[in-house]
Amino acid sequence: MPTAFITPVNATGADGEPASYLRREFEIDRRPVRATLQVTAVGLIEPHLNGRVVGDEVLAPGWTSYRHRLVVSSHDVTDVVVVGANAIGGVLGQGWALGRLGWEGARNHYSDRPAAWLRLELEYPDGSIDVISTDARFRAGRGGVLSNSIYDGEVFDARLEPTGWDHAGFDDTGWGEVELSDWPNDSLTEPIAPPIRRVEELTPTAVVTTPSGRTVVDFGQNISGWVRLNVTGPAGSEIVLRHAEVMVEGEADFETIRTALATDRYILRGGGPETWEPRFTFHGFRYVEVSGWPGQLAADALRAVVVHSDMVRTGWLETSDPLLNRLHSNAVWSMRDNFVGVPTDCPQRDERLGWTGDINAFAPSAAFLYDVRGVLGSWLRDLAAEQDEKGFVPWVVPDVLSTPSSPTALWSDVAVSLPWTLYREYGDEGILADAYASMTTFIRQVAALLDERGLWSTGFQFGDWLDPDAPANNPAGGKTDRHLVASAYLCRTTREMADTARILGHADDAREFDGLSERVRAAFVDEYVTAAGRVVNETATAYALAITFGLLDERQREHAGKRLAEIVAKAGYTISTGFAGTPLVTDALSATGHLAEAYLMLMETKSPSFLYPVTMGATTIWERWDSVRPDGSIHPSGMTSLNHYALGAVVDWMHRTIGGLTAIEPGYRTMRIAPQPGGTLTSASLRHSTVFGSVDVRWAIEDGVASVTVGIPVGTSAEVVLPLHPDGLIITMEAGEQSWTYPLGDTVLRDELTLQSSLKAVADDPAAWRRFTEVFGRHFPGVPLDAQAPEAAAMTIATLLEYIPGASPELARELEASLTTPGASS
Ligand code: BGC
Fold first, then answer.
1. Is the N-terminal amide bond of 162 cis, ω within 30° of 0?
2. Furthest C-alpha separation in the chain
3. N or C end of the chain: which has fewer CB within 10 A?
4. Which residue, 512, 509, 508, 516, is CA-closest to 491?
């Protein structure tokens, strides 16, 4: 008989219901050669065997589209079973299956009641097999876990935890019965993704008493996970832990978690040291406000436990700039914090959903940083299963929204772009083959929605979501026409679709999608692009899409690049793009010969900019670049998570441009290594574990001399473009390591600026011009310096200074210093 799910007869699955403790005893009379425990739950389960928690997974079985795919974990328990009496069971919590999910407040998305499934297989030396599995012989009781909720936290009363309940011999006569539940066994599946685990522990960096007299512990890093406490105190004292991402006016602030209570409570058993951590919740937090602690709280009484899918790290980048390094680290942390089983938008508020647009924007960065084949491969299966059932790609996967999702660019088209991104990273055609039906269904659905010109011009779109200039109450209402965004993205996805069809040998499909792609591109250009290359809306996002998606001819592209450079300069290199444009704007600049402007954007610190949050002490990527405003207050829009990876997608450009690594053939069988130093950078090192092995790139520039080292694995080859080389040297290398040292070329040194340079020469170097005008502006506020005026442009700085009444030697010195470009010309 197949193993059944069981549910305690008295379980209701209601909000605030205590966790169920399940147990059964069994006898064995000889040692098995192998004992394997398989376990899953509708809810969350912590399996126990003979007094121990089995395995090191937490929050099992994670979150999948449970009705289609409920993941079963397997544990080797050969050393845990004993000859004689054994006790098997587990603690069953609510988790994603029962608890509330989404800002709409709905709960019980998958079931009204929790259920557990356990199957212990004992294999004996003679090959015979015994199976102990969930059945009516299990008993159900209650213990310390009084309530548990992913969003709201866990309440544990240690006085109520029955001692020895998971050992053989425990008296469970007072416990209740279980009944068989009707959860379908055909949803059970093997895990594809690595399990969720405790991955790291952090010690407090500070314990502070706030102006209002509260105690707040700072762990120095915004994480997903929980706090473990060590305490000694009287029975019945209650410790309350409230988790927060940020301090405002010296107090822990709960604005960014919205309605999630994120509060754990622990009630002491008393009589000696006690250690506790929750098991059926997690929080997105850096700070914890502690109340009710018996006696003085010592910092070493608390640990922050970092919890997420236990993926293998595969990508690293370090540069000579500490702020950039922190930006990169913030993206890595936001990825870790948002890969708790499902790739989510954020880990802290009443959302934490698998928003498709967020992972679509971040996927290339994610695939560089960690091996995401498991987590994203599993998630794509859920996406395909839900799409198949519902007839649309949900905006969140697993789908828990109350209304059907309509097709949208960047969000729904993750169905095409994510398999494509994974294929490019890992070179595995199987990824495309698995997703092919989902990809083609989505594209054909959108094709049927196009207007007679071939544009995607109707229906809801998120557009350039969270454009900083959009009204605070309408994040989809940015400057860039949302249907321009939709048609541009469709050009990209139809091309990816055509290439996929070709790779998989579907020639007819490839022709169909090539035709569609060209039709949309031509319609896009006809509607949105002038013959010379202006793109309507004249926004950074419109230009970034047209350039990076290859929608323009050579002449238009050059012109568009220039216009984009002007637009970003006019914005003072702050960010004027949302989810659709931000991942692409630096690419569009560097690909059209405006590397300097790309670096100026990357290194800008004014709000809103890439580095502004870093200067504000951010340890993760924020939902808005100005989620926390310069005065320390929270942006009033309500969309202010401090842990959203989507906009961290800029690190993908950093990997390819600063680190210089781009795959030419999928999986990096052939690659291009072309670091492009810029800004104030003087060195960088990149490492990436590809499917072939490790790629290492290091470069440094010192005293006008460049040194470069490249190492690539067996089975690959690289085209290495030596940065700033006088002869523009390009080398093809096979497996192994090579180093080069050379003086920088004249072209670079010629750029050295002095007080004798013309204003035009300074203006041609955007970084220098910016520093120069800043100094000028400080000394002469309100006096414009316009390099475009021909007479002024021809003038040397020295002459300019002669004309300025009151120009001091100090001004001359500061201007001269502003001309030195660290790195390239030092
Ligand atoms: C999420 C976003 C998501 C968006 C789309 C937000 O609430 O946090 O990141 O993509 O909704 O509507």
1. no
2. 102
3. N
4. 516
Task: Find out whether 88 and 120 touch, Cβ atoms under 8 Å.
Answer: yes
CA distance 54 to 45: 11
pLDDT tens per residue, range 299-353: 899 999 999 999 999 999 999 999 999 999 999 999 999 999 999 999 999 999 9
Residue 812 sits at φ, ψ, to 5 deg, of -60, -45
Q: What is the pLDDT of residue 490?
A: 98
CA 355 / ligand 1 centre spacing (Å) = 6
Q: How far apart (Å, rounded) are the C-alpha atoms in residues 258 and 348?
A: 9
- Percentage of the chain with pLDDT > 70? 97
- Measured CA to CA, the distance from residue 158 to residue 229 in angstroms comes to 13
**Other residues' Cβ atoms within 10 Å of the Cβ of residue 748:** 21
Task: Report the nearest-CA residue for atom 12 of ligand 1.
Answer: 462
Crossing angle, helix 650-657 and helix 595-603, to 10 degrees? Answer: 130
The residues carrying an active-site annotation are: 351, 623
Pocket test for ligand 1, best of 579, 639, 643 (most atoms within 8 A of CB): 639
Give the residue from 393, 158, 409, 124 showing the smallest Cα distance to 268: 158
Percentage of the chain beyond pLDDT 90 is 88
Angle between helices 582-591 and 356-369 (to 10 degrees): 60
Q: Which residue from 356, 293, 369, 360 is spatially nearest to 328, judged by alpha carbons?
A: 369
Ligand 1 pocket test, pick from 345, 406, 466, 473 with the greatest ligand atom count within 8 Å of Cβ, gives 345
Q: Which residues line ligand 1 (CB under 6 A)?
A: 345-346, 351, 355, 357-358, 462, 644, 646
Return the H-helix or E-strand segment holding 443: helix 429-447
| Distance, CA of 566 to CA of 555 (rounded, Å) | 17
**Could you tell me the distance, in angstroms and rounded to a whole number, from the CA of residue 803 to the centre of ligand 1?**
55
Question: In angstroms, rounded to a whole number, what is the distance separating the alpha carbons of residues 231 and 270?
Answer: 9
Q: Express each pLDDT in 393-448 by its tens digit.
A: 999 999 999 999 999 999 999 999 999 999 999 999 999 999 999 999 999 999 99
- Backbone phi and psi for residue 361, each to the nearest 5 degrees, phi listed first: -65, -35
pTM over 0.85: yes
Mean pLDDT in residue range 600-614: 97
Q: Which amino acid is at 776?
A: F
Distance 345 CA to ligand 1 centre (A): 7
Answer yes or no: are the C-beta atoms of 379 and 343 closer than 8 Å. yes
- SS3 of 791, please? helix
* Ligand 1 atom with the shortest distance to the CA of 356: 10
Residue among 350, 465, 485 whose CB has most ligand 1 atoms within 8 A, to mutate: 465
Nearest-atom number in ligand 1 for the CA of 475 is 12
Atom of ligand 1 nearest to the CA of 349: 8
| Whole-number pLDDT of residue 811 | 86
- Distance (angstroms) between ligand 1 centre and the Cα of 543 equals 24
Q: 């039709």: which residue's tokens?
A: 519
How distant is the alpha carbon of residue 772 from its chain centre?
37
User: Which residue CA neighbors atom 3 of ligand 1 most closely?
Assistant: 355
Query: 664: which residues sit within 8 A by CB, 6+ positions away?
Result: 670, 671, 672, 719
CA of 351 to the centre of ligand 1 (A): 9
